[in-house]
Task: structure prediction
Amino acid sequence: MNPLIAEYLGTFILILMGTGVCANSSLNETFAKGADWVLISFGWGLGVFLGVIVAGPSSGAHLNPAVTIGLAVAGNFAWADAPLYILSQLLGAMSGAFLTWLLFADHYNKTADAGTIKGTFCTSPAIKNTPRNLLSEVVGTFVLIFVVLLIAGPEFKADGMGEVTMGLGSVGALPVALLVVAIGMSLGGLTGYAINPARDLGPRIVHFLVPIKTKGASDWGYAWIPVVGPVTGAVIAALVYLVVI
Result:
């Protein structure tokens, strides 16, 4: 598969599953209405699992501009390829969120609370405190990128077998999925753990565009935090990786 198509499709499936679990557990008159944070955390983690399976063999399954930037800073990915990877991820995220809206349109129109509706598309802080909200995204993404670099980077040599590379395209799907579940369960309650600029920005754009009776504002004043925070966390993680590894 072309790597850019792989990034698009992998991110599309990730966001479809992730925004889908949010819509399924939050919107009125779905069978899963009222499901808890554990379901949401696993929904996002398994969305990552599926996305990595789809994109891993062809693109390395970044599925996240912060991963692309972190790998580039660490010297594991070419900077020249980063812009098109990021564009593919953003378009995939928008497509996944749009399909979620299309599937759940009746339930969106039966849900009156604008905050609940927006929460199925993009993130927001549980308590608004800009420095701590930003720090939450930085720390969550630091954990994500630092561990991803450890999964993607090492090469092990076994006697008589040459080099066996352990990377995102081979054994990475399940560890990265569990990593996202862990971040969601431990840190996600602060800001909804975007930890991925495309995951937040793409669906936020879709929220702004699609017709929903009571959707309210898209909160563009907050939108920079789930972009700047993850990128900052990714750069810090890559620099720490270079120093200690």
